[in-house]
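Subject: for your reference before the review

Hello V.,

The reviewers asked for a structural picture of the protein, and I figured it would be easier to keep everything in one thread rather than splitting it across files. Below is the amino acid sequence we used in the manuscript, unchanged from the supplementary table.
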Amino acid sequence: MAAKTMRAVQYSCYGGGADGLENPSMVSDLAGEVVEVGSEVKNFKVGDKVVSTLNTLYAHMLGTGGGLAEYAVAKANLTVSRPAEVSAAEGAGLLIAGLTAHQALVEFAGIKLDGTGPRKRVLVTGASGGVGHYTVQLAKLGNTYITATSGARNLNFIKSLGADEVMDYKTPDGAALKSPSGQRYDVVIDLRASFKQTGSSKKESMECLVGLVKEEKLKTVIDSKHPLSKAEEAWTKCIDGHAILL
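And here is what came back from the structure prediction:
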């Protein structure tokens, strides 16, 4: 693929360590160039730059991913065009984490990303992770006041993404999720737990996310880049907790 970039979600589910790379089906997000299209595909052609998710958040469990490879077979309805303003690396890191954040905020919490609607006070836990850093940015597009938690080393990072106030989860107030300014939360996005992604309106949501990156309203934070031949090294770095996002 154009971006020999790997992004992984829910590392603990993979059994731990680089041995997880023995199953390339667990990686579902990719960005690349179309090299062949099916006879019924009308919206894409050879040479198009695209981003795609090969299945759901749980593709690695079902064995239906396949993104950790030079070539992959993607469904047209789970693929969107990648404009020149969005790099392959940005696209490869965007979809599963971004879709999960989008679904949590828009479908579950009812937040409008155009800034309209009633003001909501939002708590985001685990805000420096893959889903978390998208959640903070997307929530900031709405009419929100954001309280976010993370480890101490990432507090400035999530503040830079748009959080109004931040807490170290290891402090007493952070562990109790007590707002520094006494906010009473209307919405809690608890990323210490798991969101089940239903995939409703997924293509529309994918296009929305790619569009926001193009407009520089949303960014994929990339800790480091590795060629596919160094996937084991990249995987180990992620599992060891030494990367915010890969």
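For the response letter, the relevant points are probably these. The chain has eight helices and seven strands. Confidence is low (pLDDT under 50) at residues 1-21, 59-63.

Happy to draft the paragraph if you're swamped.

O.
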